[in-house]
Structures are given as C-alpha cells and as structure tokens.
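Milestone 3.1: sequence recovery, worked example.
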C-alpha cells in the first residue's frame, strides 16, 4: 500500500533509538489491520522493530555466541509474522513498494543495520555455525 497523503492512516509512534533501552510498543493486532504483507506501512514499522530487537540482543550478548544464538531464535519466533510477510512481499516482486514504505524509517533502519554490522557479536560470532544458522533463519542466507 502506498501512502495517501491527505487521508492515510495516522502515523505510528516513533520507534526507540537502538540501545536506548526504551521498550518497543506492542505491534497492533494483525486481525485489526488485515494481512501484514498487504499493509506495507505496518510491515515497514514492524521490520524496523525487528532490527532494533536484534541490536538489543547483540548488545546484551556481547561476545557470547551461544547467548546471541539463543536470542536470535527468540527474535525469529517473536517476529515470525514479519519474517513471513517480508518473504512474501519479496517473492511477489513488491520490493520497491516496501522500500517506499520503509523510507519514513530510513534513519532508524540505517542506524540499526549499522549497529548490527559493527557489533562485537557479529565480529566475534560470524564464523560460529550455530550463530550463522540462526542469523540466516532470521534475515535470510547471504548470497
């Protein structure tokens, strides 16, 4: 769904800054908004929340690969609907529409992605088979 400027849905509350410790608001009930893969604004918001949760998990785990792997598993289960909706959108060739929906979260998304990539957890655990498998299950296998 693309933005309707004059009569679109109300803007969601901003997501917390990674590492701020502020809790993420519970996502709205899926039934209230229809299928997540059809509501790209909501999918974008929840995708950023997923990345923020990864940052928090890596901050907590530090260089402990077993702890990081366990936390990735928890995040995969918690955000299963988001992961499935993202996969469906990509499979259906609607990647550009999702990118448009993500634009309003660009700063938050980029900050979280950078924190993940530059984390001590990734630097320490990138060759750990369990960690790599858990990360691949969450964000998809790297090419």
């Amino acid at each position: 769904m693309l933005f309707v400027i004059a009569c679109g849905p109300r803007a969601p509350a901003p997501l917390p800054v990674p590492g701020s410790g502020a809790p993420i608001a519970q996502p709205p009930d899926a039934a209230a908004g229809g299928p997540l893969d059809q509501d790209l604004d909501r999918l974008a918001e929840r995708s950023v929340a997923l990345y923020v949760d990864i940052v928090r998990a890596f901050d907590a785990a530090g260089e402990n690969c077993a702890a990081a792997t366990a936390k990735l598993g928890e995040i995969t289960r918690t955000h299963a609907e988001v992961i499935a909706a993202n996969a469906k959108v990509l499979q259906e060739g609607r990647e550009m529409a999702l990118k448009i929906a993500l634009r309003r979260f660009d700063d938050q998304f980029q900050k979280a992605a950078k924190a993940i990539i530059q984390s001590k957890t990734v630097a320490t655990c990138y060759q750990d088979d369990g960690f790599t498998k858990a990360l691949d299950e969450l964000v998809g296998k790297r090419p």
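Residues 40-61 form the longest helix (22 residues). The two ends are 29 Å apart (CA to CA).
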